[in-house]
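Record 1 of the preview.
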Amino acid sequence: MPRKPKTIPGPSRLSVILARLTQEPRPHLPNLKSLRLTYAYRNDHFGARHFVKEELPRIRYANPTIDIHVDKKLKTKEETWKPEMVVELKNGTTHKLDLDGKWSTTIFSELMELSAGSWWQKYKKERAAEGQPAIPPPQKPKSGAAAVLP
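->
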């Protein structure tokens, strides 16, 4: 018979992932048809890479029918091209967003402004009335002893 653990186990990995996918604001994008991102997969375009890692899974979870295409290209030090995101809306219009030098939260808010609709404006007003930012700043993961100790 196995021993009982002396400590209470923390949340499971799956519950942490699910909490991240469903955190507010939920990126429900009813006007969005497709997203196409192009960025360097190494050594540049940090905001775009963080957007793909942090926000794109949430967008996919909330909007499973959206066509998302991510193109990671090799970029040498001599090349000088900028990352971009092409947003196609359901009414047929397309918008190009320049992602160069932007944080992932800025990219997310620009995408929400383009395609979220009226609920996003209402959500921003509610958050402003509470004195909170519309998009909470990213949380830094704990490292070292802080990651282990409660």
